[in-house]
Amino acid sequence: MNNQSKSKAWVWVPSLYFAEGLPYAFVMIVSVVLYKKIDISNSEIALYTSWLYLPWVIKPFWSPFIDLIKTKRYWIIVTQLIVGASLAGIAFSIPTDSMLQYTLAFFWLMAFSSSTHDIAADGFYMLGLSNHDQSWFIGIRNSFYRFAILFSQGILVILAGQLENFYGNVKIAWAIIFGILSIMFLFLAFYHSWALPIPQNDKNSQSKTAKIIGKKYLQVVRDFFGKPEILLIIIFILLYRFGEAQLVKIAPLFMLDSYESGGLNLSTSEYGFIYGTLGVAMLTLGGIAGGFFIARNGLRYWIVWMAIAMKLPDLVYVYMAYSQPSNLTLISLFVSIEQFGYGFGFTAYLLYMMMVSEGEHKTAHYAICTGIMALGMMIPGMFSGNLQESIGYLNFFYWVIFSTLPGLILIKFISINPDFGLKKD
After folding, report:
1. pLDDT band at 423 (very low <50, low <70, confident <90, very high)
2. Contact at 8 Å (CB) between 328 and 425?
3. Do 299 and 184 share a structural domain?
4. Cα dist from 424 to 76, 294, 296, 421, whole Å
5. Using CA atoms, how far apart are residues 227 and 365, in angstroms rounded to an integer?
6. What does the pLDDT read at residue 421?
7. Fewer Cβ neighbours under 10 Å: the N or C end of the chain?
8. How high is the mean pLDDT of the chain?
9. For residue range 30-60, what is the model confidence (pLDDT) as tens digits?
């Protein structure tokens, strides 16, 4: 890599992917904690925040049309400004009587802006760097994306908990948090308007009409749904995380809920540390370990063991719901085990989608797979809160264990290339 090229990329690659990870974490993770702290019911939280997955579900179907209007650089800056404005809207809405309706509207706006930002940022990364530089910075961009999740789910939530204690008012504390985030994101937008390069090939497709692009993309979609065993592939992608899709919505609520309601009664700061810092670190380590093992023996060899490693640790929630431990070290250990297993097993899931996407339209087909994956998270999450309130935490976590079985059983029927994932000498 040219040293000058490398130094220029350091100016914008880390900050761009930090900015990409933040709004996703705000929408999918921080919103759940916020609504729990202001006493919204579990069924409402799970339903409303699961609907926020929708922009990521349909993202593959509008991504080809981004190029028709302006450049990817333009979309990055505009969507960051919209995210900043949405955060400000949430900050001003939290103290109001119609807090739930207003904040949900701003979270929706943020979700659509964030999913559009993902399209533009990933495309810009390929335009702004040479192939060699892209390979060199892939680990950097992923690390800063992960740091954004850690910052949001961990550091940010811990700070919110400290402010709750300082002010004695949950709404004031969270309004301050979102106000700070708004200023930070607006700064990121203005920073990137200066720091992002202007690649010569970053142009809107004026020579292509929506009809031409639509016709081409329709062919890409036809090719995807024409793949052998496509129905089985779609069902597997939807069901592999059927149990975990429900667990991920209810686990934070269980951690924060009172003993009387069957929860663990953690403070906001305790949750932020256990789930947001320690949990994210173990999730990342699990993903790294998964990649290492698959590189040695291939996806087909490891997928069953990885699926078991992902699903079996869900039993820790059955135990915690039964015993309601108050020992933070023990809770931290259980969450660490579950998150490591989740990261380990999720690696196989991602690589399976990459294998399915192999071919002429690899990028577009992978985007469709991720849309189906998001749908597989959205639908189970929508009914999980209502189910939990109906049967209680303990029975709900038993149900989660049962819900992991379809994904395990389907592995027997899917086709996997025996060489896929193996490290090439």
Report:
1. low
2. no
3. no
4. 36, 12, 10, 9
5. 11
6. 67
7. C
8. 89
9. 999 999 999 999 999 999 999 999 999 988 8
Q: How far is CA 349 from CA 11, 240, 316, 354, in A?
A: 33, 8, 22, 9
* Mean pLDDT lowest among 235-239, 293-297, 384-388, 398-402: 293-297
Q: Which two tokens stand for residue 196?
A: 């992002």
For the chain, helix (H) and strand (E) counts, in that order, are 19, 0
Name the residue type at position 357.
S
Cα gap 341→307, rounded to integer Å: 9
Contact residues for 66 (Cβ-Cβ < 8 A; gap 6+): 72, 75, 116, 119, 120, 123
Question: What integer pLDDT is reported at residue 242 of this predicted model?
Answer: 96
Give the range of the structural domain holding residue 374, as residue numbers without chain letter: 208-425
pTM: 0.88
By the 8 A CB rule, do 343 and 211 touch? no
Phi then psi for 203, rounded to 5 degrees? -130, 150
Nearest-CA neighbor of 388 among 15, 43, 101, 131?
43
CATH number for the domain harbouring residue 308: 1.20.1250.20
Q: How many domains does the chain divide into? A: 2
